[in-house]
Amino acid sequence: MMALVKFVPDTINHSGIMSLFILSFVLFIIAGIFTKVLSLIGLTEQKLDELGFLGLIISALTSFICIIVGYYWIKTLHLTSVQLSSMGILIIASITTIILTIQLKILEKIE
Known about the structure:
The protein has helices spanning about 5, 15-40, 45-50, 55-75, 85-110; strands at about 10-15, 85. By secondary structure, it is mainly α. Helix 2 packs across helix 4 (about 55-75) and helix 3 (about 45-50) crosses helix 4. It is elongated, with a radius of gyration of 15 Å. The two termini are about 30 Å apart.
């Protein structure tokens, strides 16, 4: 997010670099919690792997949606001073989803 502030200055308003770092960290935690909730429902990582490309799409879409919803929860509870426009949250959610998907694929290859 800190790099994106330079590229999209009109969509991200923040009080300091620390607030951006905390928001980035919390968004990754929310994505992890949502993944755990999905596994409790029955969509485990193994089941998503069995689905192949469809499983990757389902995983990416759920991460994308949970990051958007998570930001609005954090904003509603006043836990962040970072203000994102609707285009800003879409950009952040897209990039975060891509990073999470790449990290999961790398972790799968390591194991």
